[in-house]
TrEMBL record:
Chief localisation class: membrane
Molecular functions per Gene Ontology: heme transmembrane transporter activity
InterPro entries given in the database record: Cyt_c_biogenesis_CcmB, Cyt_c_CcmB_bac
Classification lineage: Bacteria, Pseudomonadati, Pseudomonadota, Gammaproteobacteria, Alteromonadales
Biological source species: Pseudidiomarina sediminum
Name the record gives this protein: Heme exporter protein B
Length: 227
């Protein structure tokens, strides 16, 4: 298949998914509101002390980002499965992995990118010292694609189940632990004055590897779920 045809198919799937999601704006706003609620309420629970909040800020933001990625993840492929769209995608001449990559990117554009943009506000609310802001934004920028890719794999595996949300969470949460450790470690390194970029570069490498392999895993999971 010609590269131009593949590119057109990628763009078409992304445009279609963006249009469908924008008709249900609550699916976009709910995860972001969840993050803001967690970040806003957390200081009320532990107290407004800047020392405590500053040390815990990166962990709180990343845990909120992780849980927000799981919100609505069950619906990532669910409606496409019910209306037959997934089956039609498996019949397209373009590689299913390429079309799966398009869906992963749409999920990141609607869930990961807004978190990167909101990172300074979250850091301000949790009184994260300025030294950690750049590291936080960098880890979110390179780490949230991993959230979207791994979430897509789990959603594709459980799409044929009637109520796969709980199972999806159980499958994915252990996989996110290394990401959480490296991301918060990078911010902690920046706060104590050491070099945070080795952890950031490691996350970037993991992100590229995940984005390279995840579409094939999603495509295989879709084929199993559809057939």
């Amino acid at each position: 298949m010609k590269p131009a045809s593949n590119w057109q198919a990628l763009r078409t799937v992304m445009q279609r998914d963006l249009m469908v999601v924008m008709r249900r704006r609550s699916d976009v706003l709910n995860p972001l509101l969840f993050v803001l609620m967690v970040v806003s309420l957390f200081p009320l629970a532990v107290g407004p002390g800047p020392d405590i909040l500053g040390r815990m800020a990166a962990g709180v933001i990343w845990v909120a980002a992780l849980l927000s990625a799981l919100l609505g993840s069950e619906r990532l492929f669910r409606e496409d499965f019910l209306d037959g769209t997934l089956e039609q995608l498996t019949l397209q001449p373009q590689p299913l992995a390429l079309l799966s990559f398009a869906k992963i990117m749409v999920h990141w554009l609607l869930s990961g990118l807004p978190l990167v943009i909101l990172a300074p506000l979250c850091a301000l609310l949790l009184k994260l010292p300025l030294e950690g802001w750049l590291a936080l934004i960098a880890t979110l920028a390179v780490g949230t694609p991993i959230l979207s890719a791994v979430t897509a794999i789990g959603a594709a595996l459980t799409v044929s189940l009637g109520r796969g949300g709980a199972l999806l969470s159980l499958l994915l949460l252990p996989l996110f632990i290394p990401l959480l450790i490296f991301a918060t470690g990078a911010v902690e390194a920046a706060l104590v004055g050491t070099d945070a970029w080795p952890q950031v570069l490691l996350l970037a490498g993991l992100s590229l590897l995940t984005l390279l392999l995840a579409p094939f895993a999603v495509a295989a999971s879709i084929r199993v779920s559809v057939h």
